[in-house]
Amino acid sequence: MRRKLAAGNWKMNGLSADLGELDALAGAASGPDTEILICPPATLIATASARAKGTGLLIGAQDCHTNASGAHTGDISAAQLRDAGASAVILGHSERREAHEESSEIVRAKARAALEAGLAAIVCLGESLAQREAQNTLDIIGGQLAGSIPDSATGQNLVIAYEPIWAIGTGKVPTLAQIGEVHDFLRARLERRFGAGVGRSVRLLYGGSVKPGNASEIFTVSNVDGALVGGASLKAADFLPIIEALETA
Ligand code: PGA
Questions:
Q1: Ligand 1 within 6 A of 208 CB?
Q2: FRET partner for 224 with CA separation of 20 to 30 A, picked from 151, 178, 211, 215?
């Protein structure tokens, strides 16, 4: 029922010379069951979109402004991202929640702007190590979910990425039981808020140190519909085996 999604977050990495990585991914992007999305830095969205055109490979962004236009020097609106060829935008990544002090309220406003512009919103949630050790994980995730997701969300325009902060870029991965607990909790909360139809159609990604060596087992966990991948999405040679693991899961 839910299409699988392999999403790559290039963060502040990548120059024009790196766009060749997209060609190998585009070749893998024709399967009917699995979507492949790369979110390069904003500087590369237009050229990446042109390069991926007609291949099935999707291009996304890593942030957008809450407003559609106006006096916001240095910012980029959702409509501008869409105009450049993006079909989705990552919002509320922990690196933005931390470094740019983005609250769930701001993330929700950005998600609303993204949906209004016709972009899918990939909203990130995740607990810190201290919060997990204090056994507050589900409280934190539940609060972020309630605060960050706009009422207009549907299975077509919303994706949620569970990314424990302590697993991002560290090589540490939660146990499969820990991932399953959070994903089942997210599914139940979505069904409660939006009803079974929408709640069951929103895709849930796991993110945080997903690599070719651990992807297959992560994709066996219930309610894991794909992955949001940072470091291992920069090179097609690393990302392709993750895509293949998802396709065969
Ligand atoms: P990582 O990053 O795969 O490098 O851990 C994941 C993310 O931050 O989305």
A1: yes
A2: 151
Residue 9 CA: nearest ligand 1 atom is 9
Pairing of strands 203-207, 226-229: parallel
Residue 82 Cα to ligand 1 middle (Å): 24
Distance 195 CA to ligand 1 centre (A): 30
The answer, yes or no, to whether residue 29 has pLDDT greater than 90, is: no
Of 248, 186, 181, 175, nearest to 218 by C-alpha is 175
Predicted confidence at residue 1, as pLDDT, reads: 79
Ligand 1, residue 231: give the atom nearest the CA: 4
- Please return the burial class of 211, using the count of CB atoms within 10 Å of its CB with bins 0-12, 13-18 and 19+: middle
Q: Quick one: which atom of ligand 1 is closest to the CA of 233?
A: 3
Percent of the chain clearing pLDDT 90 (strictly above): 97
Annotated catalytic residue 93: yes
Q: How confident is the model at residue 27, as a pLDDT?
A: 86
For 4-248, CATH number out of 3.90.70.10, 3.20.20.70, 3.30.70.100, 3.40.190.10 equals: 3.20.20.70
Residue 144, pLDDT above cutoff 90: yes
| Residue at token pair 């040679």 | 237
Q: Where are the domains of the chain?
A: 4-248
